[in-house]
Design the sequence.
Protein backbone atom coordinates (compact mmCIF):
# COMPACT_ATOMS: atom_id res chain seq x y z
CA UNK A 1 0.00 0.00 0.00
CA UNK A 2 1.33 3.43 -0.94
CA UNK A 3 1.98 5.85 1.89
CA UNK A 4 0.26 9.17 0.96
CA UNK A 5 2.81 11.24 2.93
CA UNK A 6 5.69 9.50 1.17
CA UNK A 7 4.03 10.13 -2.20
CA UNK A 8 3.60 13.84 -1.37
CA UNK A 9 7.22 14.09 -0.28
CA UNK A 10 8.53 12.42 -3.44
CA UNK A 11 6.49 14.73 -5.67
CA UNK A 12 7.57 17.87 -3.80
CA UNK A 13 11.24 16.83 -3.81
CA UNK A 14 11.10 16.20 -7.57
CA UNK A 15 9.59 19.64 -8.16
CA UNK A 16 12.19 21.34 -5.95
CA UNK A 17 15.07 19.45 -7.62
CA UNK A 18 13.83 20.57 -11.02
CA UNK A 19 13.59 24.20 -9.86
CA UNK A 20 17.11 24.10 -8.46
CA UNK A 21 18.48 22.56 -11.65
CA UNK A 22 17.06 25.45 -13.72
CA UNK A 23 18.69 28.24 -11.69
CA UNK A 24 21.22 30.20 -13.76
CA UNK A 25 24.84 30.24 -12.57
CA UNK A 26 24.72 33.96 -11.77
CA UNK A 27 21.80 33.33 -9.40
CA UNK A 28 23.71 30.45 -7.77
CA UNK A 29 26.79 32.65 -7.26
CA UNK A 30 24.72 35.44 -5.71
CA UNK A 31 22.93 32.91 -3.47
CA UNK A 32 26.25 31.46 -2.27
CA UNK A 33 27.47 34.93 -1.27
CA UNK A 34 24.19 35.66 0.50
CA UNK A 35 24.22 32.33 2.36
CA UNK A 36 27.81 32.91 3.43
CA UNK A 37 26.94 36.35 4.84
CA UNK A 38 23.85 35.03 6.63
CA UNK A 39 25.74 32.07 8.13
CA UNK A 40 28.58 34.34 9.30
CA UNK A 41 26.04 36.52 11.11
CA UNK A 42 24.28 33.48 12.59
CA UNK A 43 27.54 32.01 13.93
CA UNK A 44 28.37 35.37 15.51
CA UNK A 45 24.92 35.79 17.07
CA UNK A 46 25.00 32.28 18.56
CA UNK A 47 28.60 32.78 19.70
CA UNK A 48 29.49 29.43 18.16
CA UNK A 49 33.08 28.18 18.35
CA UNK A 50 32.25 24.80 16.84
CA UNK A 51 29.63 24.10 14.18
CA UNK A 52 28.53 21.26 11.96
CA UNK A 53 27.78 22.08 8.34
CA UNK A 54 27.68 20.34 4.95
CA UNK A 55 29.55 20.70 1.68
CA UNK A 56 27.01 22.00 -0.82
CA UNK A 57 26.43 20.35 -4.19
CA UNK A 58 26.38 22.56 -7.33
CA UNK A 59 22.57 22.92 -7.16
CA UNK A 60 22.30 23.66 -3.41
CA UNK A 61 22.58 27.09 -1.81
CA UNK A 62 26.37 27.35 -1.58
CA UNK A 63 28.10 26.72 1.75
CA UNK A 64 31.69 26.35 0.52
CA UNK A 65 32.72 30.02 0.90
CA UNK A 66 31.32 30.04 4.41
CA UNK A 67 33.18 26.83 5.30
CA UNK A 68 36.54 28.11 4.08
CA UNK A 69 36.16 31.46 5.84
CA UNK A 70 34.96 29.86 9.10
CA UNK A 71 37.92 27.46 9.22
CA UNK A 72 40.34 30.33 8.55
CA UNK A 73 38.78 32.29 11.43
CA UNK A 74 39.49 29.40 13.78
CA UNK A 75 35.98 27.96 14.03
CA UNK A 76 35.96 24.16 14.34
CA UNK A 77 33.70 22.85 11.59
CA UNK A 78 32.50 19.24 11.44
CA UNK A 79 31.37 17.88 8.08
CA UNK A 80 29.12 14.82 7.71
CA UNK A 81 30.22 11.55 6.13
CA UNK A 82 27.43 9.08 5.30
CA UNK A 83 27.58 5.46 6.47
CA UNK A 84 25.71 2.43 5.16
CA UNK A 85 24.00 1.92 8.54
CA UNK A 86 22.14 5.24 8.28
CA UNK A 87 24.37 7.09 10.75
CA UNK A 88 26.76 9.96 10.10
CA UNK A 89 30.45 10.02 10.85
CA UNK A 90 32.12 13.44 11.01
CA UNK A 91 35.41 14.93 9.82
CA UNK A 92 36.99 18.23 10.83
CA UNK A 93 36.98 20.68 7.91
CA UNK A 94 40.23 22.14 6.62
CA UNK A 95 40.64 25.11 4.31
CA UNK A 96 42.13 23.02 1.47
CA UNK A 97 38.74 21.52 0.48
CA UNK A 98 39.87 17.90 0.10
CA UNK A 99 36.59 16.27 -0.92
CA UNK A 100 35.56 13.02 -2.54
CA UNK A 101 32.31 11.49 -3.70
CA UNK A 102 30.46 9.94 -0.78
CA UNK A 103 28.02 7.08 -0.52
CA UNK A 104 25.25 8.82 -2.50
CA UNK A 105 27.48 10.76 -4.88
CA UNK A 106 27.51 13.81 -2.60
CA UNK A 107 30.70 15.74 -1.80
CA UNK A 108 32.21 14.61 1.51
CA UNK A 109 35.49 15.37 3.32
CA UNK A 110 38.42 12.99 3.08
CA UNK A 111 40.00 13.66 6.49
CA UNK A 112 40.19 11.50 9.58
CA UNK A 113 36.77 10.15 10.56
CA UNK A 114 35.24 10.85 13.95
CA UNK A 115 32.30 8.75 15.12
CA UNK A 116 28.62 9.78 15.19
CA UNK A 117 28.85 11.24 18.71
CA UNK A 118 31.44 13.85 17.66
CA UNK A 119 28.58 16.16 16.69
CA UNK A 120 27.45 16.33 20.33
CA UNK A 121 30.16 18.95 20.93
CA UNK A 122 29.00 21.57 18.40
CA UNK A 123 27.31 24.86 19.33
CA UNK A 124 25.30 25.07 16.11
CA UNK A 125 24.13 22.62 13.42
CA UNK A 126 23.68 23.77 9.82
CA UNK A 127 21.85 21.16 7.75
CA UNK A 128 20.71 20.77 4.15
CA UNK A 129 17.03 20.70 3.25
CA UNK A 130 14.71 20.58 0.26
CA UNK A 131 12.25 22.95 1.95
CA UNK A 132 11.14 24.24 5.35
CA UNK A 133 7.71 25.46 6.41
CA UNK A 134 6.64 28.26 8.72
CA UNK A 135 6.52 25.98 11.76
CA UNK A 136 10.12 24.84 11.33
CA UNK A 137 9.28 21.47 9.81
CA UNK A 138 12.09 20.43 7.46
CA UNK A 139 11.70 18.36 4.32
CA UNK A 140 14.96 16.51 3.71
CA UNK A 141 16.01 14.53 0.68
CA UNK A 142 14.62 11.20 1.89
CA UNK A 143 17.47 9.30 3.48
CA UNK A 144 16.79 10.30 7.08
CA UNK A 145 20.40 10.92 8.15
CA UNK A 146 19.84 14.32 9.72
CA UNK A 147 16.46 13.42 11.27
CA UNK A 148 18.12 10.43 12.92
CA UNK A 149 21.08 12.51 14.12
CA UNK A 150 18.98 15.37 15.52
CA UNK A 151 16.49 12.99 17.12
CA UNK A 152 19.20 11.00 18.89
CA UNK A 153 21.07 13.92 20.46
CA UNK A 154 20.69 14.32 24.19
CA UNK A 155 21.48 18.05 24.17
CA UNK A 156 20.83 19.24 20.65
CA UNK A 157 22.21 22.70 19.82
CA UNK A 158 20.25 25.11 17.61
CA UNK A 159 19.64 23.56 14.17
CA UNK A 160 19.27 25.74 11.06
CA UNK A 161 18.41 24.48 7.58
CA UNK A 162 19.77 26.15 4.44
CA UNK A 163 17.39 26.66 1.50
CA UNK A 164 16.65 29.12 -1.28
CA UNK A 165 14.12 31.87 -0.49
CA UNK A 166 11.42 30.20 -2.61
CA UNK A 167 11.76 26.98 -0.55
CA UNK A 168 10.17 28.38 2.60
CA UNK A 169 6.69 26.94 2.11
CA UNK A 170 3.37 27.23 3.92
CA UNK A 171 3.50 23.55 4.79
CA UNK A 172 5.60 20.47 4.07
CA UNK A 173 4.40 16.85 4.42
CA UNK A 174 5.67 15.19 7.59
CA UNK A 175 6.06 11.77 9.19
CA UNK A 176 6.46 10.95 12.89
CA UNK A 177 10.23 10.55 12.55
CA UNK A 178 10.73 13.97 10.91
CA UNK A 179 12.55 16.49 13.09
CA UNK A 180 11.83 20.23 12.95
CA UNK A 181 14.59 22.82 12.92
CA UNK A 182 15.06 25.95 15.02
CA UNK A 183 15.54 28.21 12.05
CA UNK A 184 16.22 28.59 8.37
CA UNK A 185 18.94 30.41 6.45
CA UNK A 186 18.38 31.68 2.90
CA UNK A 187 20.50 33.90 0.68
CA UNK A 188 18.61 36.98 1.95
CA UNK A 189 17.54 36.27 5.53
CA UNK A 190 17.75 34.13 8.63
CA UNK A 191 14.53 33.17 10.40
CA UNK A 192 14.36 31.72 13.91
CA UNK A 193 11.15 29.87 14.71
CA UNK A 194 9.43 30.51 18.01
CA UNK A 195 9.43 27.03 19.53
CA UNK A 196 10.06 24.45 16.85
CA UNK A 197 11.85 21.95 19.05
CA UNK A 198 12.42 21.02 22.68
Sequence:
Amino acid sequence: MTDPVDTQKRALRAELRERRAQLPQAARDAAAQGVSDQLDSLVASVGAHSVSCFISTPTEPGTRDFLTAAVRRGIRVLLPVTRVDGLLDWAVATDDENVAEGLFGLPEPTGELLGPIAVNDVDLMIVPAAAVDGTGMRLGWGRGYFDKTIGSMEKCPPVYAVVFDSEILDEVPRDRHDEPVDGVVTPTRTITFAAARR
Remarks:
- The first strand starts at residue 50 and ends at 52.
- The helical segments are 4-21, 25-46, 64-72, 145-152.
- Residues 46 and 124 are 8 Å apart (CA to CA).
- Residues 25-46 form the longest helix (22 residues).
